[in-house]
Amino acid sequence: MSRRSRRALDEWRPIRATSMWRVDQVFLSYSGSRIRVVASLVSDHQGLRNVEVIAPTEDPLEAVRFAARFVASPGNVHRAWGARVRWARARAENAQEDLARDRALEAAFVDAFEDTLDQIRDQLR
What we know:
By secondary structure, this protein is of the alpha/beta class. It has 3 helices and 6 strands.
């Protein structure tokens, strides 16, 4: 019988429902013909977590919607408004264009997140 090391258990910690998590930033980057999305989550207890997903599309709008549904689906993240969506190292021509903020994708992310969260809350009622 093998045991997991204490360090391995400490590195993997589920997002607890007892903490109030919110989406702070979302980073997009191309990974082949798909888009890699990393959502940075912040808790009310000063916890920081990154949730990563590879969207099965190369369309940025659909990738952001897919990521929003993925982040909202467990029901542990309560808020996404105010989240910044940024491109990381994607088609940047100089260093100033790295982390370029995309407000249209921010609105799509928040809308998809809120729709998914509303569906989850309706199921819990």
